[in-house]
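Protocol step 4 of 6: structure prediction from sequence.
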Amino acid sequence: MPPEPTFDCDWSSRRLIELPRLLPIWADALADPSLGSRLRLLALVRRALRIERARAAAGHWAYDVARHTQLLRAYRSEVAQLIADRRNNDAAATPATPSEDRL
């Protein structure tokens, strides 16, 4: 079983600054908390990681280890945050105590 992704608590405060440096994305797209917006962001980060890996494998002069590391950190933090948010939403949707009707 793969390890549980961990959320970088500093990432939530830095994401509005760092993601536009790494990706062609506007701040208002980052501020949108909808699931569709967050999945589009993850797809954008995944694509950038794929391009960066291809540069590394090809030995391209434009490959940047620091950018690759930042992209990977951003991807892992976004995935961990998405998982945490989904868990919180699922926990809020289920009742905490059993219903008296079922007793």
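Step 5 (inspection) to follow. The helical segments are 11-22, 27-31, 35-58, 65-93.
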